[in-house]
Specification:
InterPro entries: Ntn_hydrolases_N, Peptidase_T2
Active site: 205
Shape: globular
Subunit structure: Heterotetramer of two alpha and two beta chains arranged as a dimer of alpha/beta heterodimers.
Helix content: 25-40%
Largest sheet: 8 strands, mixed
Oligomer: single chain
GO molecular function, one term: asparaginase activity
Number of helices: 9
Site (Cleavage): 204-205
Structural class: alpha+beta
Distance between the termini: 32 Å
Order of helices and strands: EHHEEHEHHHEEEEEEHHHEEEE
Number of strands: 14
Length: 335
């Protein structure tokens, strides 16, 4: 039997000034969600069921940018996206533009299992969710007070990188706005995307990659996208091969600058260099993060069918956690 392993993330590109209490809160959420996956794997659950369950937990907690707590569009609404992939036969499902489905990752699973398609979006995805009897809620359920404030700040601030989870008011806001003129105070990933300036870059996607005791791999990714994004914008998270990928060799979930991840098909590239270059998992991850992202900033988690866990990122921090069958477990943010 293979050794099971699990990795999760809550996004790459962390504000280096994130308050200590917010760091501890992030670690508590990661540890709780990681434990959900560990308990399922110890009970013999299949990888596909585990990644869905863990991402559902992450979507339900408002700390990270998925499900409740998703980043807001310019119109002040939430448009979520998610994908899931089964390494056995490379089956997959994905959704975009979801605005009422409580757990988008479960809708992506239904697209894979219950439809003839791999990807549904906007009204079609919403209609399918209702037909499948999935739980839906008003769009206001996903909107938090912090994010309403951050959207207002985003519209006022112009091209600044903010960690959207840190509510800035009063003197903090004035200080942040004063720093806008000095781009050295902000990560380059927040200044330009696809060659164009953006208002606020909030990369805190969530994801999970798992190999179960049979050696089967699966991955899932979910996000609310960018704070202050254009309505209708689609990132890497629902795109198979870019934000999510699973096959017989490994499972991968990505996070960060979506447009860069899309251009380099980052998740698939990890599997490709394992298959074609014969690299072990961590070396494959390191190679792709270093060589494939061009000038983009991103991170990823991965597991192999042999029970290995790996991660990599080229930005300031990544919320992450992992556990293996031999008892190893950790959560972290920085290098």
């Amino acid at each position: 039997m293979a050794r099971w392993a699990i990795a999760i993330h809550g996004g790459a590109g962390v504000d280096p000034n994130l308050p200590e209490h917010r760091q501890e809160e992030a670690k508590r959420v990661l540890a709780r969600c990681l434990q959900v996956g560990v308990d399922l794997l110890r009970a013999g659950a299949q990888a596909l069921d585990v990644v869905e369950a863990v991402v559902r937990e992450l979507e339900t907690d408002p700390f990270f940018n998925s499900g409740r707590g998703s980043a807001l569009t310019r119109a002040g609404t939430v448009e979520m996206e998610a994908s899931i992939m089964d390494g056995r036969g490379r089956r997959c499902g994905a959704v975009s533009g979801v605005s009422t489905v409580k757990n988008p990752v479960s809708l992506a699973r239904r697209v894979m299992d219950k439809s003839p398609h791999s990807y549904l979006a906007f009204d079609g995805a919403e209609k399918f969710a209702r037909e499948q009897g999935l739980e839906t809620v008003d769009n206001s359920y996903f909107i938090t007070e912090d994010n309403v404030g951050m959207l207002k700040l985003a519209k006022e601030a112009g091209t600044i990188l903010f960690d959207y989870r840190i509510p800035l008011t009063g003197a903090d806001t004035c200080s942040a706005l004063a720093g806008a003129a000095d781009s050295s105070n902000h990560h380059k990933a927040g200044m330009v995307m696809n060659g164009l300036p953006i208002s606020v870059y909030a990369p805190e996607t969530v994801g999970c990659a798992v190999v179960d005791s049979s050696g089967a791999c699966a991955a899932a990714t979910s996000t609310g996208g960018l704070m202050n994004k254009m309505t209708g914008r689609i990132g890497d998270s629902p795109l198979i091969g870019s934000g999510t990928y699973a096959c017989g060799a490994c499972a991968v979930s990505c996070t960060g600058e979506g447009e860069a991840i899309i251009r380099c098909t980052l998740a698939r590239d990890v599997a490709a260099v394992m298959e074609y270059k014969g690299l072990p998992l961590q070396q494959a991850v390191d190679y792709c993060v270093k060589e494939r992202l061009d000038e983009g900033f991103a991170g990823l988690i991965a597991v192999s069918s042999d029970g290995e866990v790996a991660y990599g990122f080229n930005c300031t921090g990544m919320f992450r956690g992992c556990a293996t069958e031999d008892g190893f477990m950790e959560v972290g943010i920085w290098e």
